[in-house]
Design goal:
Blueprint (H helix, E strand, L loop, with lengths): L14 H29 L19 H8 L2 H32 L5 H11 L4 H13 L13 H4 L6 H12 L3 H9 L4 H9 L4 H16 L3 H6 L8 H9 L6 H31 L6
Helix pairs in contact: 1-13, 2-13, 3-7, 3-10, 4-7, 7-10, 8-9, 10-13, 12-13
Length: 286
């Protein structure tokens, strides 16, 4: 019996086929894992001269990490955690309520609201930079300025079209019969949402949790617009500032980049089961 590949082609056998597969896998490993491996090794290689960078160092050291900490990297890391913690909590809260309203309720203009949500995903950050900076300098209704505060980096990411769309489409797949049964048992609107609908959305919560964390953590344009003092920098913005400093070696930058990468990896490992279930749930329905 001949095996077929994902493209429907017959899998080749023999020594030359094994060599070709080995070469292909090696190339893919170098392309995808090579930069990550170089980052990890460079972060713990005791050198500040970029011409001496090597994938096979003589010894490993924490010198670069210590010098990065001396540069205040931990303070920038704390700012990033505050922004991503507050922003992600608000984003998940907005997404689940908006998704519930769009998926489970019928109201006039719901289609227009969904179109507007989708339209926000089509606009690049550069287009939104000027109007966003104007709004943050004078918040409508409240007439307060969020410029120069971490709150100015949290509020704009509280609603994200991608997360709302994922929750909306996932909640549409929940059977209406469950909701009707809960109503017959005397459950109210909020109880149905909290005890019936939301527990079934754990895979979708894993998806928006990982993507939302990564989106907020990697923000560069927003902190650049809001921060007025280096003490307010998040880690991605601080790394760009350190990059322009001639006294900062490549090893220190790589150590800072390693610290910036680590939380995203840990977040994925923590939510990977829900993330995978969320991605594959649509493929096993119906």
């Amino acid at each position: 019996m001949r095996n077929e590949t994902a493209l429907g082609l017959q899998e080749a056998h023999g020594p030359w086929a094994r060599v070709a597969r080995f070469v292909l896998y090696t190339v893919l490993f170098v392309i995808f894992a090579g930069p990550l491996l170089a980052l990890m090794i460079g972060a713990f290689t005791p050198t500040v001269d970029p011409t001496q960078f090597t994938l096979f160092p003589d010894r490993l050291s924490l010198d670069n990490l210590e010098r990065a900490i001396d540069r205040g990297v931990l303070d920038y890391l704390l700012n990033s955690f505050i922004v991503v913690g507050g922003g992600l909590a608000l984003q998940v809260l907005v997404s689940v309520f908006a998704g519930y309203a769009l998926a489970r309720k019928r109201f006039r203009g719901s289609a227009a609201v969904l179109v507007i949500v989708l339209a926000t995903m089509m606009l690049p950050e550069e287009v939104l930079a000027v109007p966003l900076s104007v709004l943050l300098a004078d918040l409508p209704v409240l007439h307060i300025s969020l410029v120069g505060s971490l709150a100015g980096m949290i509020v704009p990411v509280a609603a994200w079209g991608f997360s709302i769309l994922v929750m909306t489409e996932f909640m549409k797949e929940i059977p209406k019969e469950l909701e009707e049964s809960a109503k017959l048992d005397g459950a109210g609107e909020f109880r149905i949402f909290w005890q019936v609908v939301l527990p079934l959305c754990r895979p979708a919560l894993g998806v928006i949790g990982i993507f939302g964390f990564t989106m907020i953590w990697d923000q560069y344009m927003l902190p650049l617009l809001v921060a007025t003092d280096p003490a307010q920098y998040t880690l991605p913005l601080a790394l760009r500032s350190m990059r322009s400093d001639d006294q900062v070696g490549i090893g220190v930058l790589l150590a800072g980049a390693f610290l910036a990468m680590l939380p995203s990896v840990l977040a994925f490992l923590a939510l990977q089961r829900s993330f995978i279930r969320g991605l594959t749930s649509g493929a096993v329905k119906g």
